[in-house]
């Protein structure tokens, strides 16, 4: 999905990156001062690595895809935390992107026309409680249909994986529209055919203007992509988009284009692209 389309799906495996303090500082030095400060606020080393790589990916995206000079790249965030570029791109009227990180992976996705949401989850066994106890903590975020599908998935490991698939999709949608943590995830209900042809009901109504994909990154990580119309963005995010009006034909072509997965980057490639 590379090329001049404005569509990007980039992924970094940070488990393979074991920088010395000097190497980490050198990579962080590529960020503006306020971004370095945001990275430094994380206490755990793995969290700092994820935050740093996420910010490097966002800058690489603006530089490589939109040809924005590094010195002019300014990533802002809406009150709900949705990142956006301060400088608009005339070539892509509704260009937007979303970054996500959990576990071993950091990723970013961009679209020139549709809203895009990306979520990455690590399917890890809960500590100190059973799978049933763990997923029960999230029952209020799931519909009755989703809950039934999860608890009937099979073994505890299969139940856990099923739960994370639904959770990943819900998060991707919320990120795509730029909503905050207060968005009611119970308002969303997903249906699928063996996790293909995934569809969404919003407040009980089927939406035909959204598409979803699930990917297995490895044995314990999943990623989901959500794509939908720019008019569905929340107000604060909508104001950052140069154009939220698209024709039915444009939307259809964008939604029906195939998803080909992620391009892998190394941290070294990221840093070299910004030097």
UniProtKB/TrEMBL annotation:
Picking any one GO molecular function of the record gives: holo-[acyl-carrier-protein] synthase activity
- Keyword Transferase attached: yes
Does the entry feature the keyword Membrane, yes or no? no
Enzyme Commission numbers on file: 2.7.8.7
Tell me the protein's name. holo-[acyl-carrier-protein] synthase
Query: Locate the 4'-phosphopantetheinyl transferase N-terminal domain: which residues?
Result: 16-112
Q: What class of enzyme is it?
A: transferase
Entry-linked Pfam families: AASDHPPT_N, ACPS
Q: Which organism is it from?
A: Paspalum notatum var. saurae
InterPro entries named among the record's database cross-references: 4-PPantetheinyl_Trfase_dom (IPR008278), 4-PPantetheinyl_Trfase_dom_sf (IPR037143), AASDHPPT_N (IPR055066), P-Pant_transferase_sf (IPR050559)
Domain 4'-phosphopantetheinyl transferase stretches: 116-223
PANTHER family associated with the record: L-AMINOADIPATE-SEMIALDEHYDE DEHYDROGENASE-PHOSPHOPANTETHEINYL TRANSFERASE, PHOSPHOPANTETHEINE TRANSFERASE
Query: Which key words are in the record?
Result: Transferase
